[in-house]
Amino acid sequence: MKGDISSSEDPSPAPPSAVGPPDRGRRRDLLRRAMRAEVILIVVLAIMVAIFTGLNPAFLTQANVVTTLQSTTEVGLLTIGELYVIITAGIDLSVGAILGLAGVVSAIVMSGIGGSGGSRLAVGLLVALGVGIVCGLANGLMIVKVRIAPFVATLAMLGVATGITLVLTGGAEVVGVPALSVKIGNNVYFGFFTVPIVVTLILAVLAGFMLHRSAFGRWTYAIGSNVLAAQQSGISVGRHLIKIYVLSGLLSGIAGFVVLTRLGVGSPLEGTNDELTAITAVVVGGASLFGGRGSMLGAMVGAVMISSILTGLIIAGISPYWQTVVSGCILAAAVALQTLNRRGQERAA
Hints:
By secondary structure, the chain is an all-alpha fold. It has a domain at about 70-270. Helix content is about 70%, strand content about 0%. It has helices spanning about 25-55, 60-85, 95-110, 115-145, 150-170, 180-185, 195-215, 215-225, 225-230, 235-265, 275-285, 295-315, 320-349. Helix 2 (about 60-85) crosses helix 12 (about 295-315). Mean pLDDT is about 85; it is low at about 5-25.
């Protein structure tokens, strides 16, 4: 993290104009750069789809497109929260583990209560949201109040959440989830849309609006750009960071419930390595691990791109065990490019 995040807790933040780009000209320039990067990403995605389709025409069939989008919902929801965290120059390594824990606890509760399928699903959703919020709050408090580095704090939460998941399940799937959940999670409407896909799109749009068009988003960018300047501007940095990690945990809880509706069981293995995929999607989408930069559109295109690559590898007959290798290589390449670009800008300055 940059600077001291706990020395300023002024509950009355400065007006939005006090933070962010100093003039409209620079803001327009930053916007143009972001749009160019996103257009490049979309073009690369289109080229990649064309290549995979040329290798195997099955890649662009309706069934495979739906499958790819369905798999994107899992990492996409995690990517939304991870984007906010990374813009503040933080990191959340626990999103995949929280996803798994939320799904398992939700399944256990639903399998143990009576009532109609709809009422049990409603309770299960609230449980998943609660698990995500509690884990995210724990991350935020460790980082802000105990002043543990985000990497260490969220790594600890990864271990705790994974351990609790395995203790609760004994490594076995949790059954007894209402059959209605599978219909909600997998029924296809208008040829390409499922409930998880629609939910992910809606949340991405809302989170994107909040990030790019609200004071909450401007303060998020300000903290990532210069935490000391943000404090001096009157932003309650510590309180804001706690909210960011709660948001990331909440989205992980939603993702856990979404995966549960797709599978119809609570799997202790769900979410494994999802943090790597989410971070890769955010960085490929143009966000900087140094903080202060990133866009929701870029992050979501990055999520679709990573899911498309992994799906393409499976269709090409490559072992799924290579998926983590590919994600790691893509992340390393993206970070290397960012680092070289940053050094070039520093020399030019």
